[in-house]
Specification:
With 341 residues, this protein is of the alpha/beta class. It has helices at residues 15-30, 41-46, 75-91, 103-114, 139-160, 175-183, 198-210, 249-261, 281-300, 319-322, 331-338, and strands at 2-7, 33-37, 49-51, 96-101, 120-123, 163-168, 188-190, 216-221, 265-269, 305-310, 313-318.
Length: 341
Amino acid sequence: MRIGVLTAGGDCPGLNAVIRSVVHRAVTHYGDEVIGFEDGYAGLLDGRYRPLDLNAVSGILARGGTILGSSRLERDRFAAACDNAKALVEKSGFDALIPIGGEGTLTAARMLSDAGVPVVGVPKTIDNDISSTDRTFGFDTAVGVATEAMDRLKTTAESHQRVMVVEVMGRHAGWIALESGMAGGAHGICLPERPFDPADLVKMVEERFSRGKKFAVICVAEGAHPADGTMDYGKGEIDQFGHERFQGIGTALAYELERRLGKEARPVILGHVQRGGTPTAYDRVLATRFGWHAVEAVHRGDFGNMTALRGTDVKMVPLAEAITQLKTVPADRIREAESVF
Ligand code: F6P
């Protein structure tokens, strides 16, 4: 068989582990030919690809990023190019395509599948917000990075009697903030799923200071926002120089707390540090399992589906089911976290 692989959307630790696993299973076990499209769907649409043999994937298991490159997708452009992509896949003699990516990539995979391309998806995102899979690889690594950052920030916060506001990734879902906040022992956690009131954070910090704990670390997801009317933070306002006043919720919240508390506060934006570098053992294993199962699905002719972790098993689930809605943090998980900070 001739199998195409691509990685699209924001990169994520573990992508190379999937590529390696696909190549190992397909080439060694089935004698397949594996081709890697460059820069995500852009490579598919432009016909840019290269052969992937065992040597091409040697030594990449522990490497972050993706050896194939990635790009974000303009959904409309892709929809228009879908028939073209199908023709390209047929012309190049591909028997199957394995796109590895997040919600946008899997939506495009679904479009291709609907257009008749034999597709098996592999979900990835550090945000862990794809429905139908209990976990995505990359998440464990991101949580580890953010947790380590909080451990480190606590010592400097304590030395200077400061409030540290750590902004982690997660535009629509607060999984990284929730789990790194719990693991890092944050004293406050703000999630997109539940608007926060800065007055509650002020109360928490004052209570800590009054019992001699003269520092605090607050973990805030980039998509978190204050409850209506609780904080004027300049969202959408353009200053006299044409710049948006809003510099991200972490920065806005740190300065708001500093103003209200009269104590020093510092914002720390972790940003893409969470996406770079080597994947954890957990992410390498999950990514490797997803790659193995994707090749098995190709050989069963199990198309239009994606790999998913259900409990401890990897199953195939319909792409359509995976992209209908994002998996956000449920209320009971928020309640559990509240009891520890
Ligand atoms: O979806 C993954 C993610 O890392 C989000 O957490 C974050 O909001 C976004 O990608 C950042 O995207 P970009 O790399 O395009 O700035």
